[in-house]
Amino acid sequence: MEAALLGLCNWSTLGVCAALKLPQISAVLAARSARGLSLPSLLLELAGFLVFLRYQCYYGYPPLTYLEYPILIAQDVILLLCIFHFSGNVKQATPYIAVLVSSWFVLALQKWIIDLAMNLCTFISAASKFAQLQCLWKTRDSGTVSALTWSLSSYTCAILLRFVIMLALNIWVTVTVLRYRKTAIKAE
Questions:
Q1: Weakest mean pLDDT among 68-77, 102-111, 171-180
Q2: Is the CB of residue 1 less than 8 Å from the CB of residue 55?
């Protein structure tokens, strides 16, 4: 039962990720503006996705474990181009795209590079969210930022919340076992 539920969660997450940025792209195109979107947030998100994808490929994980990342990267690149297009200078996207493409190769030069980058992924992802929040707080204008995209993103994280809860409970059980084991040893 749990395996079937986990499989359903994996497929639903993949489905949500396949469409995750489509509401945002649609909102930007409809408004012909990227007002409210944070460029630093998008770049950090792209970096995090790229590191995660490269890590999975580097270590030979099965494609089903990372299939959503190429889709998310493609959607973010489209958003990046939209930001520069609607700000009037698509050519400014070139250095960013060049850095992202070259990063793909640099990450795999040494094992320690990809491992370090992967360890920083959570911080990169968190920084991305804080950059978007900072943009919203500073401008006090959500502009074309899609609430649906952020809601879908929340859904994909909520599935992972189960694992965080299970991690905490497993640690709690482990600590309790160790605590009572020492008590049992003292009693003997």
A1: 171-180
A2: no
